[in-house]
Amino acid sequence: MNIQTLKKNILLAKKDGDKNLSLAYGAVLKQVEKVTIGVVKKEVVDQNKTQDEIENDLIVSGATKELKEQKESKLAFEALPKEKQELTAVQFSAETIALCEKLIREFGHKTMTERETEMAIENTILNLGLENPTMKQMGQIMGSLVKEYGADLDKGLASEVIRKKLS
């Protein structure tokens, strides 16, 4: 999928009268536009990918960010007592969540498991020649991991594993 297809899907959903699907695609596109401006674009471009691959990665990244926001909103809403749920403006959409999950499944990368991440960290530390790495070298390790594994790397998990290892 590319960004043009995402935009066409918004128009098709509007034409078909499916407001929820149109809003879901729109939410993903909004995140893609945010991601395009940010660091992810640099990471993707640095991997010598085709334009289609870059756009695919940006869409997956945008869908991932939107999914996270939607799930956080849903959890916040569900944590409220029933009487306050009716009065709150917390917004989440089951259709947006489903669309994001579908886009990630269909076009996303296989995210590395915790064990694969641990092995990648070990290899990276060895490749960097760090015998007794310290927290001061965490950025160097993360930078090398991101460059090597790109979108397959769960950066949050990698950071957590490195912190445990270095402490």
Helices and strands in order:
Elements: H1 3-15, H2 19-37, H3 39-45, H4 51-79, H5 82-85, H6 94-107, H7 114-127, H8 138-149, H9 155-166
Structure description:
With about 170 residues, the protein is mostly helical. The protein has 2 domains: about 5-105, no CATH class; about 115-165, no CATH class. Helices cover about 75% and strands about 0% of the residues. It is built from 9 helices and no strands. It has helices spanning about 5-15, 20-35, 40-45, 50-80, 80-85, 95-105, 115-125, 140-150, 155-165. Helix 7 packs across helix 9 and helix 8 (about 140-150) packs antiparallel against helix 9 (about 155-165). The longest helix has 29 residues, at about 50-80. The radius of gyration is 19 Å and the shape is flat. The protein starts with a helix and ends with a helix. The relative contact order is 0.11.
**Oligomeric organization of the protein chains:** single chain
Tally of contiguous helical segments: 9
**Major β-sheet, in short?**
none
Task: Give me the count of strands.
Answer: 0
In round numbers, the mean pLDDT is 83
Helix/strand/pairing category:
mainly alpha
What is Rg?
Answer: 19 Å
Separation, N- and C-terminal Cα atoms: 42 Å
Spans with pLDDT under 50 lasting ≥5 residues? none
Q: What does the overall shape look like?
A: flat
Q: What is the domain tally?
A: 2
* Proportion in β-strands: under 5%
Helix proportion: over 70%
What series of H and E elements makes up the topology? HHHHHHHHH
